[in-house]
């Protein structure tokens, strides 16, 4: 069996996607906490030795460092035979929602949440712009989940793991009440949390936490 080391920081939803995928597949990983808030990923030394793209997470598989969460989720799904798709139509739908999430939902939520909760002296107009965009994306997802148990039908895939990661964090960080405003998303998050072995990010990813200025 392969050995895994995950370079992460606890607030990183992208790190959580890989940690959760490995956990749901019954795999263990060695956690490697990274001082993202202290700027280590922006140093030339870290980029030369860990990830030239300057991003977290980094997954080491048998000592080989691999990056970019979406292709890693797809690789793990294929390797473990779980949370993937069967038919060509399902494979297309999985990629459709996975790419949409990366470009829209995760892309905006990660930035909005980081600025809102973990950055001081935010520009309220920037936050307003990001929230307006997120409300549109969340409405799209909520509408889809009103007619589907999961992203592509009745079983969860890596598209669900990708989309739910940043949404499952505490509401005092992202500032949304999904139960009230997006009930289909709230119910779907509950279905994801009911999967055998599911654990939230702050349980799966230990280490020093960043200051939450939104509390």
Question: Which bin fits the share of residues in helices?
Answer: 40-55%
Summed up, the domain count is 2
CATH classification class of the largest domain: Mainly Alpha
Major sheet size, sense and barrel closure:
4 strands, mixed
**Total beta strand runs:** 4
Describe the global form: globular
Helix and strand composition category = alpha+beta
Strand line-up in the sheet with most strands: 2-1-3-4
Number of helices, counting only DSSP H or I runs of 4 residues or more: 10
Describe what you observe in this structure.
This protein is α+β, with helices and mostly antiparallel strands. The chain folds into 2 domains: 85 residues, Glutaredoxin; 107 residues, Glutathione S-transferase Yfyf (Class Pi), Chain A, domain 2, CATH 1.20.1050. 53% of the residues lie in helices and 8% in strands. The chain has 10 helices and 4 strands. It has a 4-stranded mixed beta sheet, covered by helices on one side. Helix 4 runs parallel beside helix 6. The longest helix is centred in the middle third of the chain and has 31 residues. The model has no long low-confidence stretch (mean pLDDT 97).
Topology:
Blueprint: E1 4-8, H1 13-24, E2 30-33, H2 44-49, E3 58-61, E4 64-67, H3 69-80, H4 88-118, H5 124-145, H6 158-164, H7 171-174, H8 178-181, H9 183-193, H10 201-204
Parallel strand pairs: 1-2
Antiparallel strand pairs: 1-3, 3-4
Helix pairs in contact: 1-3, 4-5, 4-6, 5-9
What keyword list fits this structure?
single chain; 215 residues; alpha+beta; Glutaredoxin; Glutathione S-transferase Yfyf (Class Pi), Chain A, domain 2; four-stranded mixed sheet; globular; Glutathione-S-Trfase_C_sf; transferase activity
